[in-house]
Write a structure and sequence with these properties.
alpha/beta, single chain, binds FE3-S4 cluster, globular, Aconitase, domain 3, 14 strands
Length: 428
C-alpha cells in the first residue's frame, strides 16, 4: 500500500507506540483488502467499552485497566499501551447495558461500575459518548461524500444510502485504529464505482408504514444479499424512521450496506444516476405476494400468542417514534404479565423526559431505556418466552440470540400486545 508521509511517520513511531500499532493494524487490514492507500477520515463511530461479560473479565484480569482492553481488542496488542487522545471526531456506539435501568436488566453493580469507569476513561480520551446505534439521530450527521469509518450495520447503511457519506462496515479494531490516526483503508464504499446500484426493485404496491418498510427491507436483503438495490416506484417519500427500518432489515436478512431510492436518496436523483448508466444485473418486483413471504419469514418463530415482553426501539427510537408511542399509550396500563421496554439514545431520552414522554411510558408501566438493546446487551425481562417487536431486524436476531419467540408487527400492534398481553397482529 502507498503511504503518505504523515502515515509513514506514524508507522515509524513518531507519534508514540499506540498510534504506531494503530497504523500497523490499518496497513495489515488495507493490504488484506487490496486497498492501494489510506484515506483521511474525520468521523469515526465504534465501540470500545468493556460492558460485555468477556470484556469485563478481561478488564478485571488486568486490574480494571481499560487501556489494556483498548490495546488488546482495538489495536491487537497484547502489550498494554498508553492510549492517547483520539485524533478525530469519534463517537461511541451502543454498549452492553443501561446504567440507569441495571436493576430491571438484571445487571450486577460491578458491571455498572465498569461501565462508569469506561465512560470516564473514554470521555478523557475525547470520545463522544453517544452510546447508540443511531449516531445520526443525535448530531453525528456526516455530509454527502464525507469519508467515515463507522461500525454497526444499521448505521452504516443509513450513512451510505440516506446521507451519501462513505463508509464500509468497520470492526472494533479498524474503528479503534481510525480514531487514533484519522485514517482508514480506501476501498469498498469509499470508491465511486462501488456505490452504483446492481439490482432494480420495482415496487408494485404502496409501502405504507414503518413496519411495512421493515418488511420490504427484509425481502430485499434476502433477494440481493450484499449487493446494492435500487428501489423504484416509491409513492410517499419515506421519513427517517422508514428508511432507518428499511436499511436495518436489509442489512440483517442480507448484507446490504448501501441502497438507493430513486428520487429520494442523494445519489439516485434518477434511475440512470443510481446505476451509473449501467444495466441492472437483475430486475425484481415487490408486490403483495413478496410482502406476504417477508411477513411470514419475519414471524417464523412466533407461536404462542401470550406475549410477555414488548421491545421497541431497534434501531434506537427517534423522538418522533417515542411521540407516536405515547399517543397510543397515554392513559393506558401495561398488562400485568407483560413488560414494555423502549430503547432510544440517551440524548433523545433527555428530550423525552422534558416533553413528558418518559412519564407517560412509566405511568403505563413501561420503561424508556438507553445505551443498549435486548440483542446487544442480552437483556430481557426475567422469564421472557415470547416477545413482540416492530423491528424486522430485532425479530431476526432476538430469537437467535436469546432463544425466545418473536412476533413482528406495527407499533400499534405491539402496544396493543403490551396492553392486552396477547398478540393479535396480522398482515393487513
Ligand atoms: Fe440498535 Fe440493538 Fe437494533 S444496537 S440496531 S437496537 S439490534
Amino acid at each position: 500500500m502507498r503511504l503518505a508521509d504523515d502515515e509513514k511517520a506514524m508507522l515509524d513511531g513518531s507519534e508514540g507506540p499506540a498510534r504506531q500499532k494503530a497504523m500497523e493494524l490499518l496497513v495489515r487490514y488495507g493490504e488484506a483488502l487490496g486497498a492501494e492507500r489510506l484515506v483521511d477520515t474525520r468521523n469515526v463511530c465504534g465501540t470500545m467499552g468493556a460492558t460485555m461479560p468477556f470484556l469485563r473479565d478481561y478488564a478485571a484480569a488486568h486490574g480494571g485497566r481499560l487501556d489494556a482492553v483498548f490495546s488488546e481488542f482495538s489495536l491487537d496488542s497484547p502489550e498494554v499501551l498508553e492510549i492517547p487522545k483520539v485524533k478525530v471526531y469519534s463517537c461511541h456506539l451502543q454498549q452492553g447495558l443501561d446504567p440507569e435501568h441495571a436493576a430491571q436488566q438484571g445487571i450486577p453493580p460491578q458491571a455498572v461500575q465498569v461501565y462508569r469507569d469506561g465512560e470516564a476513561y473514554f470521555g478523557r480520551l475525547g470520545v463522544q459518548l453517544m452510546n447508540t446505534c443511531t449516531p445520526y439521530q443525535v448530531g453525528n450527521v456526516p455530509v454527502k461524500g464525507e469519508h467515515c469509518a463507522w461500525m454497526e450495520s444499521s448505521a452504516v447503511v443509513y450513512c451510505n444510502s440516506v446521507l451519501g457519506a462513505r463508509t464500509n462496515t468497520e470492526g472494533r479494531e479498524s474503528a479503534g485504529a481510525a480514531m487514533l490516526t484519522g485514517k482508514i483503508p480506501y476501498w469498498g464504499y469509499h470508491l465511486d464505482g462501488n456505490r452504483l446500484g446492481t439490482h432494480l426493485v420495482e415496487l408494485a404496491i404502496e409501502v405504507k408504514d414503518t413496519a411495512d418498510w421493515g418488511l420490504l427491507g427484509y425481502w430485499v436483503g434476502e433477494a440481493v444479499q450484499d449487493r446494492i438495490p435500487v428501489l423504484s416506484g416509491v409513492g410517499e417519500i419515506p421519513n427517517l424512521a422508514r428508511l432507518k427500518h428499511f436499511g436495518a432489515s436489509a442489512s440483517s436478512s442480507g448484507g446490504v450496506e448501501m441502497y438507493h431510492v430513486v428520487g429520494v436518496t442523494p445519489e439516485a436523483r434518477t434511475r440512470e444516476e443510481a446505476f451509473g448508466g449501467r444495466k441492472p444485473c437483475a430486475a425484481l418486483r415487490y408486490g403483495a405476494a413478496e410482502r406476504r413471504i417477508a411477513y411470514e419469514r419475519v414471524n417464523s418463530t412466533g407461536r404462542d400468542r401470550d406475549v410477555d415482553y414488548v421491545m421497541l426501539g431497534c434501531p434506537h427510537y427517534s423522538l418522533e417514534q417515542i411521540w407516536e408511542v405515547c399517543q397510543l399509550l397515554e392513559g393506558q396500563r401495561i398488562h400485568g404479565n407483560c413488560s414494555l421496554w423502549i430503547f432510544t439514545p440517551w440524548a433523545t431520552k433527555q428530550l423525552a423526559d422534558r416533553n413528558g414522554y418518559t412519564r407517560i411510558i412509566e405511568d403505563a408501566g413501561g420503561f424508556l431505556m438507553t445505551d443498549t438493546c435486548s440483542s446487544v446487551g442480552r437483556v430481557l425481562p426475567k422469564g421472557t418466552k415470547v416477545a413482540a417487536v416492530d423491528s424486522a431486524k430485532q425479530a431476526h436476531y432476538l430469537p437467535a440470540i436469546m432463544g425466545v419467540q418473536a412476533w413482528f408487527g406495527t407499533t400499534a400492534e405491539c402496544i396493543q400486545a403490551a396492553i392486552t398481553g396477547r398478540w393479535q397482529g396480522g398482515l393487513q
